[in-house]
Design goal:
- By secondary structure, the chain is of the alpha+beta class.
- The strands form 2 sheets. The chain has a 6-stranded antiparallel β-sheet with strand order 1-2-3-6-7-8, with no helix packed on it. Strands 5-4-10-9 form a 4-stranded antiparallel β-sheet, with no helix packed on it.
């Protein structure tokens, strides 16, 4: 009986050790996402609270590198190239580090975002952009560290950091006009050669060979150096009853595939040419 009780006790203890204890995090994680113009921007960070402590100049020393939150360093991701203040920044993910001061904050965008806190060894070559801003004293206290977007415009937004009675804000400028203009010009220019190619293959597969022929010829007119375009052209012409045209297109595809070193298309074209009596 004692052995049974001991066995059960050990089993229950083992289950208790394996169970995962869940408690509230003192600095909970947060992610904010914002579309600025046509650019996606997201920030992931942890949010410590004051809890009666003096923050800047004490918990967060002045003029020292800060992770800008708690736990893992704060991360920001841009879907397009942007400007931070006047500094250009390529699209991608960055760690945000700051050096809060009494009269000035230095906001640093660091290309290595995989740090727990600040980097053990600072690498100046990984500093993608640095901006200095003047902090504002708030007429009220912010208990929990907060990052937010504000002043949203077509081509810009402000990224603000709030804690205690301090606000530091940096302007983000996004290339809305350039993206929109490129989109407009693409639409106004009409379908690309690849669009016509995909449409041609679709119509071939749905046995609408006359329509397929129209689009594959437009694809070739837009880019005649692609051997797979001419391969589809030969198959579509054959389905349209134009064996002579199919042979000519297959020979062109064979020539281009041979130059490109694509043995698969070389074989496919040779097989078709044999089938059509051209070899």
């Amino acid at each position: 009986m004692k052995k049974i009780i001991l066995f059960v006790s050990v089993a229950l203890l083992s289950m208790g050790i394996q169970a995962q204890i869940k408690t509230p995090q003192p600095s909970p994680a947060s992610t904010i996402k914002q579309v600025v113009g046509l650019t996606d921007v997201s920030v992931s960070y942890s949010r410590p609270s004051m809890k009666g402590r003096t923050i800047f100049g004490n918990l967060v020393p002045f003029d020292k590198l800060w992770r800008t939150g708690a736990n893992k360093n704060t991360e920001i991701t841009f879907s397009d190239d942007v400007k931070i203040g006047d500094a250009p920044l390529k699209k991608g993910t960055y760690a945000i580090f700051t050096k809060p001061g009494k009269d000035s904050w230095e906001i640093i965008f660091y290309s290595d975002a995989n740090n727990w806190g600040t980097p053990q060894k600072w690498d100046a070559t990984k500093v993608a952009a640095t901006v200095k801003v003047k902090p504002t004293t708030l007429p009220f206290s912010v208990e929990t560290f907060t990052i937010m977007f504000s002043d949203l415009a077509m081509d810009s937004a402000h990224l603000s950091f709030f804690w205690e009675k301090t606000e530091a804000t940096v302007k983000i400028t996004v290339p809305t006009k350039e993206i929109a203009t490129a989109s407009i010009e693409k639409v106004m220019a009409g379908p690309s050669a690849n669009d016509h190619y995909q449409i041609a293959v679709f119509y071939k597969d749905t046995k609408e060979f006359a329509k397929a022929k129209q689009h594959i010829e437009k694809a070739i007119a837009g880019n005649g150096d692609r051997f797979w375009y001419h391969r589809q052209h030969s198959l579509i012409l054959a389905k349209n009853g134009d064996k002579e045209g199919a042979i000519k297109a297959a020979k062109k595809s064979l020539e281009l595939a041979s130059k490109a070193g694509n043995d698969d298309y070389v074989k496919l074209n040779n097989d078709s040419l044999k089938e059509w009596g051209a070899l």
